[in-house]
Design brief:
With about 375 residues, this protein is α/β, with parallel strands linked by helices. The protein folds into two domains: about 190 residues, Glycogen Phosphorylase B (Rossmann fold, 3-Layer(aba) Sandwich); about 180 residues, 3-Layer(aba) Sandwich (Rossmann fold). Helix content is about 40%, strand content about 20%. The radius of gyration is 22 Å and the shape is globular.
């Protein structure tokens, strides 16, 4: 039997949530049954050699459809014809058109999957964001079930944003953003080593965040909350540290905000890191002040690490697997109050493997669900 060929579009050099999800699936999927190839709008992929070593093809599309529709169609059509794909797996954060879906259907791809990953528009500039929201809603009004063969989502909130009421809920399949659970299990030895390397004292409470420095992730809110905690007369600022893991377009702005609040000595910018599981060990609390999320993988990882978690109330409650996630509206005073209250609790961490695995967030279990989803209606 020939391997089933799957084209994923798009992945990005920034290695955001969608790209991480796709790469994790490729790592664990049965490679005797499936072949993954990838199309990207990025000029380069720093991790391309890893994929090419596995025999994957990477296609670099030279322009967005909004810039040159004719050229985009020609390039994407060529990819599909030359690759002779059984499945096109489209990872969707917002609607701009149904162009890619229409190309795939017209070419005769057997299975076209639209996979909902977001609940908002990931654009920093306000006017452009409003324009894209209007376009998204306009295109959504014309969504029909014949645009694809399958409709998947990481959460029901993401399904609502991408599919609205245009696709019946029974036609939508939930695909969980699973992780390698064992990598994130709490390890006191690693915790001690990393805190020492980061210059964190045993008596300091570390508030952490992992994510790209972009509009949806909203780390500026967390910085302002942390500054308020440091300026609180009832606590000693030396007891608290803020550990920010990531990079992105707002990094300079965030570093300036830290300087303006005079909290440079208590904030650690760790940068974009490959050792996130170890850095989570060094934290005592994980904070996710996102404006919106599909289903945040970072919050899955943090819970598996045994961390107490605080999230904005825009984050789906589906992600609260352990009962250790506290949802708070994005109001600075409420975040300060709740973080100070939670920090009075014990730092003791527990093994969350059983709960996480039973909830379906173990990648070795979820990959079987993905494989079944690919095979359904194909053979």
């Amino acid at each position: 039997m020939e391997r089933i060929k799957v084209l994923h579009f798009p992945i990005a050099n920034s290695k955001g949530g969608i790209t991480q999800y796709v790469l994790r699936n490729w790592k664990f999927i049965d490679k005797s049954l499936f072949q993954f190839d990838f199309a990207t709008m990025s000029n380069t992929l720093d991790f391309s050699h890893e994929l090419e070593k596995d025999g994957c093809k990477i296609y670099y599309i030279s322009c967005y459809a909004e810039d040159d529709k004719k050229k985009f169609i020609a390039e994407f059509k060529k990819i599909l014809i030359e690759g002779n794909y059984d499945i096109v797996h489209l990872h969707t954060k917002q609607w701009k058109s149904f162009l890619v879906e229409q190309i795939a259907r017209k070419i005769g791809v057997k299975k076209v999957i639209v996979h909902a990953h977001s609940t908002g528009i990931d654009t920093l500039e306000e006017q452009k964001r409003q324009e894209e929201e209007l376009l998204h809603n306009h295109v959504l009004e014309h969504l029909t079930e014949d645009i694809a063969t399958d409709f998947w989502a990481c959460s029901w909130k993401a399904a609502e944003f991408i599919f609205g009421n245009r696709i019946l809920s029974q036609k939508i399949k939930m695909m969980k953003n699973a992780i390698e659970l064992s990598k994130y299990a709490y390890n006191p030895q690693i915790r001690g080593e990393y805190r020492k390397n980061l210059g964190i004292a045993d008596n300091e409470w570390v508030i952490g965040n992992v994510g790209r420095f972009v509009y949806p992730k909203n780390q500026e809110f967390l910085i302002n909350v942390f500054a308020e905690i440091c300026n609180n007369d009832e606590v000693s600022s030396s007891r608290y540290r803020l550990l920010l893991v990531g990079s992105g377009e707002r990094e300079k702005e965030y570093k300036r905000l830290v300087r303006e609040n005079r909290i440079e000595k208590t904030v650690i910018f760790a940068g974009q890191r490959a050792d996130v599981p170890q850095l989570l060990q060094a934290m005592d609390m994980f904070c996710l002040p996102s404006r919106f999320e599909g289903l945040p993988i970072s919050l899955i990882e943090a819970q598996m690490s045994g961390l107490l978690c605080v999230a904005s109330d825009s984050v789906t409650e589906e992600v609260n697997i352990t009962g250790n996630v506290y949802y708070i509206p994005l109001e600075k005073e409420k975040w300060v109050e709740n973080i100070l209250r939670i920090t009075k609790r014990t730092k003791e961490r527990y093994d969350m493997y059983e709960e996480m695995a039973e909830s379906g967030y173990d990648i070795e279990t979820q990959i079987k669900v993905l494989e079944a989803g690919y095979l359904e209606g194909l053979l």
